[in-house]
Write a structure and sequence with these properties.
The complex is a heterodimer. Chain A is of the alpha+beta class. Chain A is built from 13 helices and 12 strands. Chain A is 36% helix and 22% strand. In chain A, strand 2 and strand 3 form a beta hairpin. The relative contact order of chain A is 0.15. A 7-stranded mixed sheet of chain B has the order 11-10-9-8-12-13-16, with helices on both faces. The chains are: A alpha+beta, B alpha/beta.
């Protein structure tokens, strides 16, 4: 296995500092008792590799909450499509979030291609991080088969004792490793320990919901008229937390701003949420998804049903963020279980 | 942060010069627009454009002229929102931004050689006119043509001159009904559905093309099915809230379909089982 190298844990600080000299490095940082966020770091000291789940997924670097897509000049009657981007090394991404980025890649690479996304993404190097345990009880990564990596990274770190075993997956990743000069080749012992860890994970990660992966789409297809949607619609407060923290939610609004010269300005893309009451309302006042239960049904069908028809994959990563962030206590695993129960009852 | 221009962007905007503005009813205006440099819009009937006004934003507007009408295209706009309100204040000589044409239009190649029945309710005549005029300009490529039009009252009727032209043409069966009218109205009064049973048609070779307010579809489709028109020969154009117009932003989704990219024209078979469509 030529593409495995070793970095001693004591050298991590050096590793990050070296990269940070020329590039912006972003990594998980502790923000509160149980909260973490991806943030810019300049050394390894603030990085918390035992982090559970960050509040926001790394999608904020790929699809910023607010981004300029067009700049205009009224007097010249000119609109210029514009991109602001930077080189980033994204360090310590869990496998669920790697999958989330892969989902976004698919959406924005469809024709007509979104070059604001694609050109920005091409300047981000992704370093994944293996999970040996669950973040918490809200995760359903084994159900979604995202507890192990399915590609989507340049380098992938697995922490074993005093070292990281790094899978070098791309040429860009290889260049980064060579530049630091801190890594050595993995030997047989490393490889067998890596294998042991993967085997141990099989006993740790078990499907969290009583339904096979392939049955999820049929379950949602058959549940379009379910009472469960009315029930969670009763609880939902339409705050949009679930969609904001979701690694695969990408809906947006487009807003024009004008500068103080009253001549030039920008067209901005900002995150929006299908949970907002006016999301599907047209100018005449007709609202095509007025009911909160309908909006929740729509959100979950966009994870477990519609994308499977289009892209042969679920758009739920199993990260558990929607459950963690819900102020009304709507729990994804509970919702799926209720749908299963309802179908059994029928 | 580094800044760069993007040469090929779905958000690229062309300049559209307003050649003429016409007040059509109390709340609708018609705009004749030409692209800068004489570029052709090159649209299919049933497609739409995103109209931009800097500092205000953009909104999807269906193209109401046929591509056979070259040199300029027409938009008929009701003053209901922020963008349309600003557009109504604009005059001939002003410039707006145009993105598009976007979406899938009516399936002209499928319609050719067949009988057509157009059913338009209210503002539905605006996108439908692009196809009606296309058919009239290529009249010998099509079989029998019937146009059924319904609107709230005679004062809300659009395209008066063209309507009377359609009425006069021998190769078009035209009928119109209004929900309510003053005593001097000499036409039909009643819902648009009341016009359908009376149409003499060969269901096997008739395609029905339906455009109107959301509430209309269910009733009209029931009448069409009662006339034995096959489900695969019923087409409609749907309206939803749109922001990007290219199948990403999510606002226009109808279940798993994007109204802007998969539509706005849909075959009935594609949407009949979609709980969010009709």
């Amino acid at each position: 296995m030529e593409n495995l190298v070793i970095l001693k844990k004591e050298d991590l600080n050096d590793f990050v500092m070296q990269i940070a000299r020329t590039k912006k490095v972003v990594a998980p940082v502790k923000k509160g008792v149980k909260s973490f966020a991806f943030e810019e770091v300049t050394s390894g000291e603030r990085i918390d590799l035992d982090y559970t789940s960050t509040i926001l997924p790394p999608k904020k670097y790929f699809l910023p909450q607010k981004e300029t897509i067009v700049e205009y000049d009224k007097s010249k009657k000119k609109w210029t499509p514009t991109l602001y981007s930077e080189e980033i090394v994204l360090f310590g991404v869990h496998t669920c979030d790697l999958f989330g980025i892969q989902c976004l890649d698919i959406i924005f690479s469809e024709n007509p291609k979104d070059f604001n996304y694609i050109l920005r993404k091409n300047r981000i190097l992704i370093i994944g991080l293996e999970c040996s345990n669950y973040c918490d009880e809200n995760a359903s990564c084994a159900l979604m088969d995202n507890h192990n990596p399915n590609g989507g990274y340049d380098l992938f770190f697995t922490e074993i004792d005093d070292r990281f075993i790094i899978h070098v997956n791309t040429y860009h990743g290889e260049k980064l490793i060579n530049k630091t000069g801190l890594c050595t080749k993995a030997d047989k012992r490393d490889i067998s320990e890596l294998r042991l860890l993967k085997e141990r994970k099989r006993n740790v990660f078990k499907n969290e919901v009583d339904i096979p992966y392939a049955e999820l789409k049929p379950l949602f297809e058959k549940s379009m008229k379910s009472k469960v949607w009315d029930e969670i619609g009763e609880k939902c407060v339409s705050c949009g937390n679930c969609t904001n923290v979701c690694p695969t939610c990408y809906c947006f609004d487009i807003i024009d701003d004008i500068n103080l010269d009253l001549n030039t300005g920008t067209r901005t893309r900002v995150w929006d949420s299908c949970q907002n009451g006016s999301f599907a309302e047209v100018a005449g006042g007709e609202n095509f998804r007025e009911d909160r239960g309908e909006r929740q049904r729509h959100r979950l069908n966009r994870k477990f049903n519609y994308p499977v028809s289009k892209f042969r994959r679920y758009f739920c990563t199993g990260c558990g963020r929607c459950t963690r962030a819900c102020v009304a206590g709507i729990d994804l695993k509970e919702t799926i279980n209720s749908l299963i129960e309802e179908k059994k009852g029928n | 942060m580094d800044k760069r221009e993007i040469r090929k962007s779905p958000y690229d905007i062309k300049q559209g010069k307003i050649l003429d503005v016409k007040q059509m009813t109390e709340s609708e205006k018609s705009f004749k627009i030409a692209l800068q440099g004489g570029d052709l819009l090159d649209h299919d009937p049933g497609q739409f454009v995103m109209v931009s006004i800097p500092g205000i934003g953009d909104a999807p507007i269906s193209i109401s002229s046929s591509p056979t009408q070259r040199g300029y295209f027409e938009l008929v706009v009701r003053n209901v929102g922020k963008l349309t309100g600003a557009l109504h204040k604009m005059e001939a000589g002003d410039t707006v931004g145009i993105r598009g044409p976007l979406g899938n239009g009516f399936p002209i190649r499928l319609l050719e050689g067949n009988d057509l029945m157009f059913v338009a309710g209210g503002l539905g005549i605006v996108p439908l006119r692009s196809l009606i005029n296309y058919v009239n300009d290529n009249r010998r490529n099509f079989g029998k043509v019937s146009i059924l039009l319904g609107c709230k009252s005679p004062t809300e009727m659009l395209f008066h001159e063209e309507l009377s032209h359609w009425e006069e043409r021998l190769d078009v069966n035209f009928s119109v009904t209004v929900d309510s009218a003053a005593p001097d109205w000499r036409g039909n009064v009643g819902m648009i559905t009341s016009l359908i049973p009376g149409v003499d048609l060969d269901s096997k070779r008739t395609f029905a093309i339906v455009v109107g307010p959301p509430v209309m579809y269910k009733f009209v489709i029931n009448e069409l099915l009662a006339k034995n028109i096959p489900e695969s020969q019923i087409y409609m154009s749907l309206e939803r809230h749109m922001k990007c117009g290219v199948g990403v932003c999510g606002h226009c989704q109808i279940g798993g379909s994007y109204c802007c990219k998969d539509g706005p024209v849909f075959c009935y078979t594609k949407v009949k089982n979609n709980i969010e469509a009709l």
